[in-house]
Write a structure and sequence with these properties.
The complex is a heterodimer.
Chain A (H helix, E strand, L loop, with lengths): L4 E9 L2 E6 L2 E8 H11 L4 E5 L4 H17 L4 E4 L5 H10 L3 E4 L1 H5 L2 H10 L4 E10 L2 E6 L4 E6 H11 L3 E6 L11 H10 L4 E4 L5 H9 L5 E4 L1 H4 L5 H10 L7
Parallel strand pairs in A: 1-4, 1-12, 4-5, 5-6, 6-7, 7-10, 10-11, 11-12
Antiparallel strand pairs in A: 1-2, 2-3, 7-8, 8-9
Helix pairs in contact in A: 1-2, 2-3
Chain B lengths: L1 E4 L7 H9 L4 E4 L2 H6 L2 E4 L5 H10 L3 H5 L5 E4 L1 H4 L4 E2 L4 E2 L7 E4 L12 E6 L16 E6 L1 E3 L5 E7 L1 E9 L2 E4 L7 H13 L1
Parallel strand pairs in B: 1-2, 1-3, 3-4, 4-13, 5-7
Antiparallel strand pairs in B: 5-6, 7-10, 8-9, 11-12, 12-13
Classes of the chains: A alpha/beta, B alpha/beta.
């Protein structure tokens, strides 16, 4: 059986790592390559780097950062943020990224999933989905939660899988940044709809939250940022405690 | 010098980066004479076995690879095409390892997913390239097809069914996992291959 993965997420702006609470109020938490290497040494299974730069200069800085990451880090890493064409994906692949995560651009142009997956393989495509509960439905949002669409979560996730996405990275915008835990029922429901791995994101505040999203939510991986960045718990300590709870992790 | 065989099957960057991290010199080539003259040969591979075999044929490298006498390491699809046959695209392969490559089966109820993607443990390790690597060590896999267990199996793993995580025959080695992405364990395996 594959081990459950722990994936620290690093938001990068102009080459530096930042993490926002509900995407507002960014704080600098350090050099992106150095932080990634520290996580890898502590036992992180993968890393996700999200480029939140809004400018072309920022984008170019990010591409050269990806080259540095790929030279320095010996575990897989995903990059995301602002990927809207197959050329963007190709540029990041050439820079050494193992996977790209696509979000808003895929919602606006679903065939982007097909074109990247058919050219570079499903293992290269992570479909990131931001969702928000509206009444009884989970709907898709884009642009960091600012735009609500009419697309429904489960059908979109299934469509993403059919179009060739290799993994789904799901964030509940209602939970992201709150540190009150993941919506485990939502993850369990999603895992019934899909056969590709699901990465749970947004809301981890404790070891128990992460243990629950694996055992109750059926997630294959957990992505977290703030609990690591501020040194509250190391990746290794988290994995030891998950192991003690009977969860298969790589130690 | 390590020759990384360039036959247009995916990005070679992570393999190159890993070799740089462990301080090995390499070149990327599809030139038969360069491949024959190198001390070590690395056959990477991402994508489909059928395409990989076609690309190797087109470059006239099938027999070149089979006749090599120096240590050769195939990674992922690079190892699969060193087997007899792959179900993927009904592909006849190089026939170095005496085994078949078959699709892994998923089982959602049991949480077994295909592609088999992520960190899994390897067992029944036969030394050589696993010197210093402990039983049950975790390595990184990304694949949907895998070679059956056979007498040349030097490591086993399991995703639903058991399969060969690594193979060895004479000077030929292969790993189904990606040592270049498998952290310190992967780097140890690459170092062992270079020291063979």
């Amino acid at each position: 059986m594959v081990a459950k993965r722990i994936i620290p997420c690093l938001d990068v702006k102009d080459g530096r790592t930042v993490k926002g609470v509900n995407f507002i109020g960014l704080q600098d938490v350090g050099d992106a390559v150095e932080l990634g290497r520290r996580y890898a040494m502590q036992g992180a299974d993968e890393l996700v780097y999200l480029d939140i730069s809004a400018t072309i200069e920022g984008r170019n800085t990010f591409t050269s950062l990806v080259e540095r990451i790929s030279s320095n880090i010996n575990i897989p890493f995903t990059v995301g943020g602002g990927i809207s064409t197959i050329d963007d994906a190709a540029r990041l692949l050439d820079a050494g990224a193992d996977k790209v995560s696509i979000n808003s651009a895929a919602v606006n142009n679903p065939s982007l999933i097909d074109s990247i997956a058919s050219k570079y393989g499903s293992q290269f495509v992570v479909l990131a989905i931001d969702t928000k509960r509206v009444g009884n439905e989970w709907l898709i949002t884009t642009h960091g939660g600012r735009t609500l669409t009419e697309r429904e979560l489960f059908s979109w996730a299934r469509e993403g899988e059919e179009r060739g996405a290799g993994e789904i990275l799901l964030t509940s915008m209602d939970h992201d940044g709150t540190r009150n835990g993941y919506p485990c029922e939502l993850f369990r429901e999603l895992s019934r709809h899909l056969s590709i791995p699901i990465i749970a994101s947004g809301g981890a505040g404790s070891v128990d939250d992460i243990a629950k999203v694996f055992s109750e939510g059926g997630a294959d991986a957990a992505l977290a940022a703030s609990i690591f960045h501020y040194g509250e718990i190391t990746v290794m300590e988290l994995k030891r405690r998950l192991h003690d709870k009977g969860i298969k992790v790589r130690i | 010098m390590i020759a990384i065989v360039d036959y247009d099957t995916g990005n070679l960057r992570s393999v190159c980066n890993a070799l740089e991290r462990i301080g090995s010199e390499y070149c990327i080539t599809s030139d038969a004479s360069v491949i024959r003259a190198s001390e070590r040969v690395l056959l990477p591979g991402v994508g489909a076995a059928s395409e990989a075999m076609n690309n190797l044929h087109e470059r006239g490298l099938c027999n070149v690879i089979k006749e090599l006498r120096q240590p050769v390491l195939g990674i992922c699809v690079g190892m699969q095409i060193m087997c007899q046959y792959s179900e993927e695209g009904d592909t006849s392969c190089l026939g170095i390892f005496d085994t078949y490559v078959r699709k892994l089966a998923s089982c959602v109820e049991m949480g077994i997913k295909v592609p088999h993607m992520g960190w899994n443990s390897i067992e029944n390790l036969k030394k050589t390239i696993f010197e210093g690597v402990h039983e049950g060590a975790f390595v990184y896999f990304v694949h949907s097809f895998a070679p059956d267990k056979c007498k040349q199996t030097i490591a086993l793993s399991r995703n639903g069914r058991e399969f060969s995580a690594a193979l060895a025959k004479d000077n030929f080695y292969g790993t189904q996992f990606h040592p270049e992405k498998s952290g310190d364990v992967g780097e140890a395996i690459l170092r062992n291959f270079i020291r063979l």
